[in-house]
Amino acid sequence: MADVDAAIERLEGLTGTFGVSEDHVRLRIGLLRAQAKALEALGDIPRDTEATERLSFDPVVARALFDSVVEVCGTYGSTSDDFARLAAAVGREPEMLQPLVRGAVLRSDEKILAGLAWRLDVPAPTLLFVRRIVAAPMVIHAVREAACEETAGGTCPKCGSPPAMATLRPDDGARMLHCSLCGAAWPAGRLACPFCGTEDPKSLSRAGLEEHSARWIEGCQKCRHYLRTVDRRRLPAGEDVFPVVEEVAGLGLDLLAEQLGYHRRPPYAGM
Questions:
Q1: Which of 8, 23, 123, 194 could in theory staple to 76 by disulfide, Cβ–Cβ 3.0 to 4.6 A?
Q2: Higher pLDDT pick, 190 / 7
Q3: Distances in whole angstroms, Cα of residue 231 to Cα of each of 160, 227, 241
């Protein structure tokens, strides 16, 4: 779990940083520790091989992780009542946990998610976030040995989820996309929208908070999606990039994207 320990250390270093909420830092650290514990608990559970079953769902591990996630979110989140209602609902109907979590992988209809959120009296974004956080370790366990073939597409070749961010490699500036669910990275075309595939330069734009910064957003005027980007060539030599750290440190870029009218991007749920 060396990467997890390193990510937690970097997260702790964000405490006190301008524009970064300490509660948000504590939230992510708590979630990351809970996910790492779940991944370790999955151990030697056999991996599913069918694409539609890429989830090593163990009810005991899933329930323990779910309980930890709602506890951490209830402690450091801004809507603790929502998490309390969600925990109570799963307590009454524990059988709902498996389809809820599997839906993060199978990308079930948004109307189904909205209907479930209404029934549970929990905002759909809250429900989406929790189920992705719970699903991530199981997806990682299921696909950790799968190959990441080179592709120009914007969908993760391991689990099929959309990217949460991009990095530019320090040696050649090539673009790497980072999965929002399993955390895998794969190479993709630089001058193309990873969401709709357009290569029209008039539709692609870039915006940042500071000139010459190593971090900015790349948006598409055609589909109105955007992606955070980190240029590793502009970082100190040897500095690692952790998507979960970027998720916390770069909220200002999300606010900028919102001001520019882009759609909300998928939150990073991986480890």
A1: 23
A2: 7
A3: 24, 13, 10
